Amino acid sequence: MIYIDQLQRPVHLPATPKRIVSLVPSLTELLVDLGLEEALVGVTKFCVHPAPIRKAKVIIGGTKNFHFDRIRELKPDLIIGNKEENYLEGIEALEKDFPVWVSDVKSLEEALEMIEGIGEVTGRDAEAGEVTAKVRDCMKRELPFKGTAVYLIWKDPLMTVGRDTFVNEMMQRAGYKNLISENRYPEISERDLVFLHPEYLLLSSEPFPFAEKHRTYFQKLLPETRVLMVDGEMFSWFGSRILKAFSYFQTLVK
After folding, report:
1. Which of 84, 129, 181, 211 has the fewest Cβ atoms surrounding its Cβ within 10 A?
2. Are 48 and 23 found together in one domain?
3. Which residue intervals define the domain Fe/B12 periplasmic-binding in the entry (predicted)?
């Protein structure tokens, strides 16, 4: 069978995969939720959901530094990757020996396409359809507008989230208007933050682990802004965790 991934690349599979390696934490969780835990043989060190998965499976390194020898020893018949979270050279090296299905998600619609695509390539069409149907139900429930916001993902240098990203859409779904007009993940200065004067500053728990000391610092810098620590997984994980995200957004302060 020939499948088309989200980079519009053909992925050739002779049969339904029985040995899967996941290079993406959010997609590891999705694979388990689709009933593929037994088929999942390798995961990254950042694959923390479900909790026991890292102890039960072989750790193949990080999302950007694979242990190619470990992956080859696992003899996967399918590898699941992501354009943004992994790196091109690593993906190209792996696909010389194994089928690699690569996702590329910058919106909720693309996330739904990805879930259905992974369901198709793994023989879990029905299970994937159930997940996407539930997500579409969640999308029908609009949350009230909270205010303008800036979402920080890194400390030194300060980096934020702009347009053309999955996080940007999830911010909108949560009720925030993103004040960053640039695309992707631009750097921002403290002076820029003061000038933008957001009603909310959202400090993400990942990839940089913002902590209470950072919240205190930015609250002094922006005394009229509500500085919140937020769960980065709920804003950036584009697999089945989306279902938990909508409930999480309802708990954020109005």
Report:
1. 181
2. yes
3. 19-254
Same domain, yes or no: 58 and 102: yes
Cα dist from 122 to 12, 25, 230, 235, whole Å? 12, 17, 33, 26
CATH at residue 7:
3.40.50.1980
* Same domain (yes/no): 152, 42: no
Task: Convert the pLDDT of each residue in 162-208 to its tens digit.
Answer: 999 999 999 999 999 999 999 999 999 999 999 999 999 999 999 99
Is residue 223 within 8 A of residue 159, CB to CB? The reply is no
58 touches 78 (CB < 8 A)? no
Residues counted in the chain: 254
Which range marks the domain in which residue 54 is found?
2-138
pTM, two decimal places = 0.94
CA neighbor of 242 nearest in space, from 101, 124, 114, 55: 114
For the chain, the domain total comes to 2
Please report, rounded to a whole number, the percentage of residues in the chain having pLDDT higher than 70: 100
